[in-house]
Design brief:
The structure is a homodimer of 215-residue chains.
Chain A lengths: L3 E5 L12 H10 L5 E5 L1 H4 L2 H4 L9 E4 L2 E4 L1 H11 L8 H30 L7 H23 L11 H11 L11 H12 L1 H14 L5
Parallel strand pairs in A: 1-2
Antiparallel strand pairs in A: 1-3, 3-4
Protein name (chains A, B): Glutathione S-transferase family protein
Pfam family, one (chains A, B): GST_C_2
Organism (chains A, B): Mesorhizobium opportunistum
């Protein structure tokens, strides 16, 4: 049964791959699972049909027969449980990979989300310029520790896993800020993720939808 | 094998149950698993011995023989996988409960963390008073949708699950702000969580450690 995911009709990032459907496309490509995409407009995201699948009115969602999921972390985990390629088989190694999924989404992403909010939604506020360095330093406080943990390793804990997929996706949001490039090993880690054939295919698929048309 | 978790030697919240070890204690109580607690000081949390278990230097951690985990979501999920009581057996219902775990930690908690940062770490900043209403409104934008989804139901999706355990725990952080009480059904939902015998035991256990001494 081919699952259907949703994505933005036109992503606000103009095809940079930062919309969260890219994370799900990447996971689907890693496990070799074909998928359909239903594009939704901002108006459709707030309509009852979509809210019935995603109570918070966001993308992506995941439909597989009667099963309807939202939350990128949950969709990636579901794919990792149903198919080989994203979680190790060993019980303890699997639990550690899942730990990194949660670390990406609940420890590393929140200060990055706060930085995006400061840069986008509070850009015109009178406090913006003075406050931004504080927000950036909170991101750095987290990345300092992540960088120490990663060290010279290729991935966070042994082989590439769903934990790396989410961590790389979260860190990609920082590239525009320049902060990622302050950490040589983290920048190389993200580049390793982007070089994976599954990521290349996922990025191209979202780019085909979201890139600004030339005409 | 009795697992060992870590908690603050003295929680900054003075025993209100908002430190994240309470979430893990609650999960352990729900599944009927005895546990040991190792209390760590702020200095110990930054020491190499602790960073080897928790790269971000936080609590809680979870040790079970050779397995060492961090991230509350991951620890709760590990307990839910190993013991009955926190996830439904049906494949699709299980995937939906896991979805609510991620929704609690990656959709609902980030704006609440931002509010805590604004109230605690930016309280003395010149923009604090003018900015706080914006931050509160971002929390409300999320709770509006959560409240609609919950409606008159007892729990987020059928029976109580690890998704409810994490969502109630996240919402508890809002009580002091007064925002939770703006949503009658969410306030009742949190109260239902707090009334569970497993929560009562978990709260009492952390209170015994963290409450200010009278002497």
């Amino acid at each position: 049964m081919t699952p259907t995911i949703t994505g933005f009709e036109r992503s606000p990032d103009g095809g940079k791959g930062l919309a969260r459907d890219t994370r799900v496309r990447w996971a689907l490509e890693e496990v070799g699972q074909p998928y359909e995409v239903r594009l939704v407009s901002f108006a459709q995201m707030k309509a009852p049909e979509h809210l019935a699948i995603h109570p918070f009115g966001q993308i992506p969602t995941y439909e597989e027969g009667p099963l309807r999921l939202f939350e990128t972390g949950s969709i990636v985990f579901h794919l990792a449980e149903q198919h080989a390629g994203l979680l190790p088989g060993d019980r303890d190694a699997r639990a550690r990979a899942i730990t990194w999924m949660f670390a990406a989404l609940n420890t590393v992403e929140p200060p990055i989300l706060e930085l995006m909010t400061a840069r986008i939604f509070e850009r015109d506020k009178p406090w913006s310029e003075e406050r931004l360095p504080l927000v950036k330093d909170r991101v750095r406080a987290t990345l300092d520790k992540l960088s120490v943990h990663l060290g010279a390793a290729d991935w966070l804990d042994g082989a590439f896993s769903a934990g790396d997929l989410l961590m790389v996706s979260v860190l990609l949001r920082l590239r525009m800020s320049g902060i990622l490039d302050e950490y040589e090993n983290l920048a190389a880690y993200v580049a390793r993720g982007e070089a994976r054939p599954a990521y290349v295919r996922a990025f191209a698929a979202q780019f085909a939808v979201n890139a600004p048309s030339i005409s």
